[in-house]
């Protein structure tokens, strides 16, 4: 896919670690200049430095994706540095502890929705303004298998991730005829720091998760990154508004 991303520019949120970092690295290794954004400045600076040390074009941007001014500045800085924006992976997100719906707090609903759903809309808003001016671009939003199914105790998280898919489909229809594709990935249980933290707090959850994994293992961040790159490539030019499960067969059951 290298020719597809040479002289292209990619933006990845939540790029300090996990799936975001894997996607940023994959874009860079396929020839793109990459803007890595994360609220953890030290983490994302280190990630960008590592990529530059390997000869790639990369810049770090500290961004709280729940802050619209910072989101707008993130996109503007990317374009100012690299001249355009060809691909964006709106990946930043948080997990929510398992809890019965009746016992959940409104503050937790607001927190999870702000990061996992509203921020995706805000990122798309400013990415699309640039891509609309260019007449081209590809956006991938990170939903989850939680955007495709329901699970007990996960109502808040799943509500936000279902919302990402609805947002993706509607926006995709608005821009499909204007050279811009918008899709979503729906990862299953991926071996990332966020999942490791969740399992540390809920150690018995791993046994239940593995029972439901047809492939018999957790996914890797690199496997999700491969799906993201394909959705941003010309090879996926006819894929519009799709929610691609990358879940080892979990939702096929």
From TrEMBL:
SUPFAM superfamilies in UniProt: NAD(P)-binding Rossmann-fold domains (SSF51735)
MF annotations from Gene Ontology: oxidoreductase activity
Keywords recorded for this protein, A-Z: Oxidoreductase
Pfam families per UniProt: adh_short_C2
Domain of life: Bacteria
Family classification: Belongs to the short-chain dehydrogenases/reductases (SDR) family.
Name recorded for this polypeptide: SDR family oxidoreductase
């Amino acid at each position: 896919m290298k020719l597809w991303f040479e002289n292209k520019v990619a933006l990845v949120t939540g790029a300090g670690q996990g799936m975001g970092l894997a996607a940023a690295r994959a874009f860079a290794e396929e020839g793109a200049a990459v803007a890595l954004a994360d609220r953890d400045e030290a983490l994302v600076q280190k990630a960008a430095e590592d990529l530059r040390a390997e000869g790639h074009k990369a810049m770090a941007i500290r961004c709280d994706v729940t802050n619209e001014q910072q989101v707008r500045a993130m996109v503007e800085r990317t374009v100012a540095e690299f001249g355009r924006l060809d691909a964006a992976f709106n990946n930043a997100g948080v997990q929510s502890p398992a809890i019965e719906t009746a016992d959940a707090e409104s503050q937790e609903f607001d927190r999870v929705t702000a990061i996992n759903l509203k921020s995706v809309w805000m990122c798309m808003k400013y990415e699309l303004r640039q891509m609309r001016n260019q007449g081209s671009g590809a956006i991938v939003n990170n939903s989850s298998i939680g955007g495709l199914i329901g699970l007990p105790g996960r109502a808040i998280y799943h509500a936000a991730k279902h919302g990402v898919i609805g947002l993706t489909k509607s926006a995709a229809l608005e821009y499909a005829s204007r050279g811009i594709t918008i899709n979503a990935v729906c990862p299953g249980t991926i071996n990332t720091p966020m999942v490791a933290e969740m399992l540390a707090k809920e150690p018995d959850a791993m046994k239940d998760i593995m029972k439901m994994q047809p492939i018999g293992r957790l996914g890797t961040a690199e496997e999700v990154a491969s799906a993201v790159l394909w959705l941003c490539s010309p090879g996926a030019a006819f894929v519009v508004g799709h929610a691609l499960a990358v879940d080892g067969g979990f939702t096929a059951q």
